[in-house]
Amino acid sequence: MTSYKILAISGSLRADSHNTALLRAAQKFNSGLDIEIYDGLRDIPPYDMDLDNPQNRPAAVAELRRRVDEVDGLLIATPEFNYSIPGVLKNAIDWVSTDWTKSEGLPLLHKPVAIMGAAPTNFGSVRAQLALRQVFVWTESDVVVKPEVIAFRSHERFDEEGNLIDETTIGLIEGLLEALAKKIERAKQ
Amino acid sequence: MTSYKILAISGSLRADSHNTALLRAAQKFNSGLDIEIYDGLRDIPPYDMDLDNPQNRPAAVAELRRRVDEVDGLLIATPEFNYSIPGVLKNAIDWVSTDWTKSEGLPLLHKPVAIMGAAPTNFGSVRAQLALRQVFVWTESDVVVKPEVIAFRSHERFDEEGNLIDETTIGLIEGLLEALAKKIERAKQ
Amino acid sequence: MTSYKILAISGSLRADSHNTALLRAAQKFNSGLDIEIYDGLRDIPPYDMDLDNPQNRPAAVAELRRRVDEVDGLLIATPEFNYSIPGVLKNAIDWVSTDWTKSEGLPLLHKPVAIMGAAPTNFGSVRAQLALRQVFVWTESDVVVKPEVIAFRSHERFDEEGNLIDETTIGLIEGLLEALAKKIERAKQ
Amino acid sequence: MTSYKILAISGSLRADSHNTALLRAAQKFNSGLDIEIYDGLRDIPPYDMDLDNPQNRPAAVAELRRRVDEVDGLLIATPEFNYSIPGVLKNAIDWVSTDWTKSEGLPLLHKPVAIMGAAPTNFGSVRAQLALRQVFVWTESDVVVKPEVIAFRSHERFDEEGNLIDETTIGLIEGLLEALAKKIERAKQ
């Protein structure tokens, strides 16, 4: 039995990011998903349409597009910056959502996607996650609707080593991964 | 009589951007505003909270924060990428919206801001502009509500040298700059 | 072969509504869907949680909930009022989205839904449709992502008898109904 | 010294509504505002553009438009239904936002507005309030940006008689009323 391959992307670059920690927690669950955490976000340059073609695309971007193409689904953990998606995460999505040549294919088209998010505030990443859902309407990705994983007051949900210890959040993530696996399974039928 | 200083930011990096062209058009109007177009967006690195403090902030970011502090208002021209704000524009906003030390001040707080946008599609940058307005709720910037300048089918609005020739758009931008000037004037009272 | 049953709801009550006209056009297509247009919206009273239970629910509401339960999917045509969903449409959704007793079931849960919209303005019902998509995230309905049917400048798309004559819109609606039928088919598997 | 007149509208019709209770609390503060709570929402019929003119408008609607015209500002308390504004509240806004004759004036244009909201859930009325802000972009109302009053887990904030006893919420409402009064004062200059 082969397990589905998932590329996981955290919208936060800071070392002790709770969003990255959520992804690490997801890796450890017995979900039947093979989750790899993307660590190249820092190398993705600002989106420039003049470079967005097979000849001129920066190497880090070409690599990210290739990886999105290869995996069965995406798992995104997004903090909320200014009531919306971090620019750094949105910038990566901008680079992998296009096909101006109409010959390469759209990496995000019909791609199964699961969203979660953590934030230290009372309202977690509620607004960022909704903003992200709107993005995936355009790309026509196949986004898991529920459960929504909104780890508000996220600092209360991890131990000192950054391990997720909150049972509610653990249960939600398990549900999310299960829903993602089902979406992938259906898409493959 | 001194004129108000405006920093103008285009969310598109491509050479022939219609959004940058809107800003150039705005510069030429007899608005009483001194509009300078920011050209450093390409140098703003991905937002990293670990570096977002006076000691570690990248030079391009420190410079952008300084300029936002100095000017009387902002003029933003945003394309629409994936039904939302370009990541590259949002990333710059993320860097200039913070003050983790609580000693530097929030560059965007109460800052007068005017928004416009161009896109070649039928629905212009409608969705991106609304997404951007939501961002400025958090920053508590003082955003001009109307007129909304939505240059849809933007390729029909410029001549071959990239000059804005569409009378409707010209009138809207004039109205926007006037509204921005009024906001600044009121804020200074 | 039995065809799927669809309840179609127009968010506009005016007699010559382009949104209702879109639904009438959809009825005539050879889509294999049995589309019935709901005409009871005018009788739905303002939502009141105190009445939202099997004992006290107004008759028109109970009937709408029953019909939503019975059909295989929903087709909604929404105008845009004030950059959002018409209150009258949202009010009906509010009444059919609940189950405070936890015994009746949630009529909108997993229900296949297709959205379209017409408006005489340049930006059609773009904003209303996105606002409506956000509503269906909460209800966890199974919403068709594409095609998006946005009949902007809608007065140009109908003849004097109110028949849809615009080929682009016709093609989009056909695509939407096909996508809705596929969603229903998958859900039944 | 005359105090400013405010019309307060609750988006919830249920008897023990926390949103209505927030408005009652606001009435008691020493804000210098004369706040009257609107109790006619139940009588506002579904919006019908065919009736939306001085000759045919339902009496309850005509009365609401008149009252909005007369007051200096609005105070709205909105619950969140299905991740958005209650239909019943939006329907009232739809009726008071128009002037198809171009002779009556737009009741909401430039009208100072303050928003708050309560909900028993963890995320309060966060999404409803943002949805409402988008509505007031179209109407070009003069909406208070901060403080945002989001009474999440609202059942913990009132005593058994429905009095607001939570100090944080009390402070936020006082700040909101102060900001509303300032907006009105500036508008009158």
N-to-C terminal Cα separation of chain A, in Å? 16 Å
Give me the number of helical elements of chain A: 5
Gross morphology of chain A is: globular
Number of E-state strands of chain A? 6
Mean pLDDT of chain A: 96
Using CB atoms under 8 Å apart, which protein chain pair has the greatest interface? A-B, 35 and 35 residues
**Oligomer, anyone?**
homotetramer
CATH level-four homologous superfamily name of chain A: Flavodoxin domain
Order of helices and strands of chain A: EHEHEHEHEEH
Q: Helix content range of the residues of chain A, please?
A: 25-40%
Q: Point out poorly predicted stretches of chain A.
A: none
Sheet having the most strands of chain A: 6 strands, parallel
Gyration radius over CA of chain A: 16 Å
CATH class of chain A: Alpha Beta
Strand fraction band of chain A?
15-25%
CATH topology of chain A: Rossmann fold
Number of domains of chain A: 1
Report the structural category of chain A. Answer: alpha/beta
- The CATH architecture of chain A would be 3-Layer(aba) Sandwich
Descriptive report:
4 copies of one chain form a homotetramer. With 189 residues, the first copy, chain A, is of the alpha/beta class. The first copy, chain A, has one domain: Rossmann fold (3-Layer(aba) Sandwich). Chain A contains 5 helices and 6 strands; from the N terminus they run E-H-E-H-E-H-E-H-E-E-H. Chain A has helices spanning 18-28, 59-70, 87-96, 126-139, 167-188; strands at 4-10, 33-37, 73-77, 112-118, 142-143, 149-151. In chain A, helix 4 (126-139) links the parallel strand 4 and strand 5 (142-143). The model of chain A has no long low-confidence stretch (mean pLDDT 96). The A-B interface holds A 12-15, 41-42, 44-50, 81-94, 97, 127, 131, 134-135, 137-139 and B 12-15, 41-42, 44-50, 81-94, 97, 127, 131, 134-135, 137-139.
